[in-house]
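--- STAGE predict ---
source: upstream dedup step, 1 unique chain passed
mode: sequence only
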Amino acid sequence: MDHEGEAKRTDLMTITRFVLNEQSKYPESRGDFTILLNHIVLGCKYVCSAVNKAGLAKLLGLAGETNVQGEEQKKLDVLSNEVFVNALISSGRTCLLVSEELEEAVFVKPKQRGKYIVVFDPLDGSSNIECGVSIGTIFGIYAAKDKDKITLDDVLQPGNRMLAAGYCMYGSSCMFVISTGHGVNGFTLDPSLGEFILTHPNIKIPKKGNIYSVNEGNAKNWEKPITEYVDNCKFPQDGSSPKSLRYVGSMVADIHRTLLYGGIFMYPADKKSPDGKLRLLYEVFPMSYLMEQAGGQAFTGKGRALDLVPKKIHERSPVILGSYDDVEHVKAFYAASKANGA
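--- STAGE serialize ---
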């Protein structure tokens, strides 16, 4: 009998156990972060269940309202937002919430306040629900300076001050990927146990990949460095093999593939969207944080993505992130363009 193999199958590292182990490294810790994370995980499990039976439960249709981004809200968008807002407030560990679905930030009542600020996109890529493409939840966590004197300025911090970030992907399996500033770890939901089990410890993105991911439908509006980089992906000047194009259109799915397989994901600024399209606080920052923790880079076309300071909660930004060498290659095209005065 393979006793070692049996031990691995029975000694399961759940996400709760993993976070408690991390917590034990900090004697001053009171367990607040663990409680907050448990509520985020619960929200993800609920949304995963809702996504899996959305068609049967008639949750796919439009809710008849338009969110702050001008996108028509799906019933699942509305449901997911309510689930996470309620879960985060009931944790008693949050003081301020920013959701993609809500125009205004949510200030938690003083009696229920904790020290954490959570920014999140409750259901990214929801327009893909009906065709079965992977969608997900994205979140980032900050600490407030003073939970009793919380203001909107407390959330308008650069991404490099995040304490943790992650996403939950609802696809062929439900996967929760998180970093608390010490590498990236992936957990897969075991439906029979109702628990997220560590399946991808210490994720490291390959230094270079052979996949590029971008919406080429926007090509006519791109800046010159992006056009030149994508041309080089297709027709490499050094005689190497061309890169493969993979673009799902669901950020969580595209980033998840990029993290595991390497390569580059781009949603750059262009003539149509000079400030970019993705939201800075709850899309660009969390994914950039994860990418850097996994050994990659995140670049805006002008500088490091995590160094940006938001001026408003729904601010947009361009982003180019992925394998370290691939992002360096894009940077070289931007540097050459700047040197030529383009």
